[in-house]
Amino acid sequence: MPEFVNAALRFRLRPLLALLGLLVCVAASGTDAPATGSIAPAFALADQAGQVHRLADYQGKWVVLYFYPKDGTPGCTTEACEFRDNIFAFRDLGVVVLGISLDDVGSHAKFAAEQHLPFPLLADSDKKTAQAYGVLSSLAGLVSYSKRETFVIDPKGRIARHYADVDPKTHSKALLADIRQLQGSH
């Protein structure tokens, strides 16, 4: 191919490649997730009713702290409904389920009402909790969100398990099996 054709092709593709790079570029917060066995980072966040929840409120209980990107999106709705549908199994094990995203209290109130969610959705609008747990991410530095990750916190306030790769359709049931195993070893 003649050089001038290559140059013209590169010139035309350059903006497209730049845009593609911008869309694909996902920048993490730079903070690592707390290690298994370490003390879970403290938080104080309002739920969908405006009630503040602190991790310290759950001392002596097992906690499933699940982070998700956005209220009302397909994967997040599937995941929340799976927790809803299995809530009695979690409660039978003495486990508290808490969902966290960067959405505000109003968004959580609407999402929880639409999906009949019987557990708190915590508003991390200042992004500090997502950052402390190493799940804060952004799309090309323009839109921040929390990655879909889950932490199981034991009754002593330590990270018992971290799930960085979550399938919204099966995660709730897998957690129940893992928590049963964890509780048997404590």
Largest sheet, strands/sense/barrel: 5 strands, mixed
Average pLDDT number: 87
The CATH superfamily label reads Glutaredoxin
> How many domains?
1
CATH topology, by name, is Glutaredoxin
Under the CATH scheme, which class? Alpha Beta
CATH architecture: 3-Layer(aba) Sandwich
Q: How helical, in percent, are the residues? A: 25-40%
Q: Tell me the distance between the termini.
A: 69 Å
Helix and strand pattern = HEEEEHHEHEHEEEEH
What Rg do the Cα atoms give?
20 Å
Instruction: Specify the number of helices.
Output: 6
Could you name the ranges where pLDDT drops below 50 across 5 or more consecutive residues?
4-11, 13-29
- Globular, elongated, flat, extended or rod-shaped: what is the shape? globular
Q: What portion of residues belong to β-strands?
A: 15-25%
Count all strands and give the number.
Answer: 10
- Please state the structural category: alpha+beta
Structure in words:
With 186 residues, the chain is α+β, with helices and mostly antiparallel strands. The chain has one domain (27-185): Glutaredoxin (3-Layer(aba) Sandwich). Helices cover 38% and strands 23% of the residues. It is built from 6 helices and 10 strands. It has helices at 3-24, 74-85, 87-92, 105-115, 128-132, 171-185, and strands at residues 26-28, 44-46, 52-54, 62-67, 95-101, 121-123, 136-139, 143-146, 149-153, 159-163. A 5-stranded mixed β-sheet has the order 6-5-4-9-10. It has a 3-stranded antiparallel β-sheet with strand order 1-7-8. Strands 2-3 form a two-stranded antiparallel ribbon. The chain is globular, with a radius of gyration of 20 Å. The model is unreliable at 4-11 and 13-29 (pLDDT under 50).
